[in-house]
Amino acid sequence: MEGIVRELAREIRENQVRDKYRPIAFSEYLEMVFADPRLVRNAYQRLYDMILSHGTHIAKVQEKEVIRYNFFDDPFTGGEDAVFGIDEALKNLVDTFHAAAKGLGPDRRVILLHGPVATSKSTIGRLLRKGLDEYSKIEDGRLYTFEWDVSDLEDEPNDTVPCPIFEEPLRLISPEGRQKLLAELNRVFREKYHGEYTLRVEGDLCPKCRFYFNRFMRLYEDDLEKVLKHITVRRLLLSEKDRKGIATFEPKDKKNQDEEELTGGMNWRLVQVYGSDSDPRAFNYDGELCVANRGLFDGEELLKLQEEFLYDFLHATQEHVIKPKKNPRIDIDTVILGRTNNPEYRRVKANERMEAFNDRTRKIDIPYVLRESDEEKIYRKFFGKTTRVAGKHIAPHTLHMAALWAILTRLDEPTGDITMVQKAKLYNGEAIPNRNIDLKKLRDEAKDEGFFGISPRYVIDMISKALVNDTEGCINPYRVLAMLEDNLTHHSAIDENRLDEYKEYIELAKEELSAICQEEVRRVISHNPDELREVGQKYLDHVMAYLNDEKVEDRYTGEEIEPDEEFMRSIEKQIGVTEAQKDDFRQEISNWISERARKGEPFNPEQNDRLRKALEKKLWEDKKHNINFTAMVSDKTTDPEHKRRKAEWIERLKQEFAYCDVCAENVIVHAGAEVAREELEERERA
Ligand SMILES: [Zn+2]
Ligand SMILES: [Zn+2]
Questions:
Q1: Using one digit for the tens of pLDDT, what is the confidence trace for 310-334?
Q2: % pLDDT > 90, the chain
Q3: Is residue 103 part of a domain?
Q4: How far is the CA of 660 from the centre of ligand 2 (A)?
Q5: How many domains does the chain have?
């Protein structure tokens, strides 16, 4: 046991921050600052550098290059809080921090994350808080504060008094002295660290520190050197838990709001001790704006705050100052971040008395994601990457279809000849075959997209509900879509006026799902690489002859024959290539073949997605009539040959598409029913 304790102790010691406990003399601190002027960065500068310290990369989204900050992938917990699919909004946010770091204006604004419910607004706040906490522990993100040695003073109960708001030690130097110092520091900062903004240490000492400063100045007859001997500089570790430099805030209901929560207030016990209610030592510096000094103030639902308290924010942002009742002002240095939902924002925006406040906010829109694959990632983050959750299997396409539906509710109806599902696919970076669509135009005509529709939270809740209610050990997309539809009416967050649309989108998702399932079943039943290659080669021979105006040599008879138009069309129409489009398609295949030949790669139709699909469908068409589906899928089938083949399909569905026994059986029955229905329709038509 002792060994374990020793090992633990060693690990803890090694993981400790280097100078966490070390007392540092003020003169030594000055040396440290000249060696690394980044120590005196203000809150905006440190936050901005923190984000950049994790690096960036360029991501390509729909042919457009966007910068992606690795920080938003959540480097702390391996992606638990990663933010997906809103790279442009995140860039806007970081650009705002950048401008604030340079002192260009946003540093005098409440930075307000605005968007519908359950976007990543809270996640972004949480990441920034975590990021600052971690950054303050490493060498690049260090910062310091100080405490007073008051052991010589008679009426002080303690030997040391730390600055209650963790001030930067350089605030102990007069504004004029500081200017000279900062000029020199900025020179070093530019040369050594390529600093692109100006270091500034603004504001006066807090009232408590000013009290001791004046007292020691009086004692030493204005000898600053002697006064500073009473200063011990200390490493400051920003921590939400320890209430140092990181504060969160959520307004209580209207009746119970108390401005002291933000600014701090008198400590009546200490008023008794010091005998005056204006003694700065008798003030509690525990308002959230004080706690946030040097770091980040992160306010939830900020606009729900009573109007009079919003003025505290005005002072804090515009002037970087807190003005408690009956007490001197406190200069602060903190990033003020707020979050708000659509309705609150509109209410405050419409209130004329709030004009001053509205003027001093910088709104950053945080929309819902509009790419289905990003939406699916949000669910995966919640349910995990495996296909089993809580001992249950999640059938293929379950999250995919839920995501498709959620995206559909967030889109405007497109103009022109394109469907909602096609629009969703285009947004997702998928091409619509045989079509050339101006994506930018589509986006431009739908500026509000991302600010209405269903929240990912509703979808996650419904998937969870389906998991809990399940009895078969596997939840499938049909079940989840039904769950999403059935609960729409008794969900408070859902817009009643859009219920019909939402239900319509459920049908669209089901159609899409049916097509995908059929294709998978088709593939496991009819896919045979040899056959595919054979038909593919034949198609290719005829296409080349057609394009070059030549004849084809018949493989068996050696006879020269005309390209077989009927045969080529029977394949092309499988994937919707029309008579008018056939020449383009044939040319496309021919180009693809030449390209491969140039690289010395042999013909393999499986490597061209559209050709493969067309050939598979063709083979399926030729075969399906020979399969007695009704008998095959029937539970009562006794034919050993049928049983053997069905078992084979189930095995392939499991191997190739990650189905389990339950959902594989379901999907075969489903696809079988579709084929039976089609055949019936064909017979009726004939
Ligand atoms: Zn202080
Ligand atoms: Zn399953």
A1: 888 888 999 999 988 878 899 999 9
A2: 50
A3: no
A4: 4
A5: 3
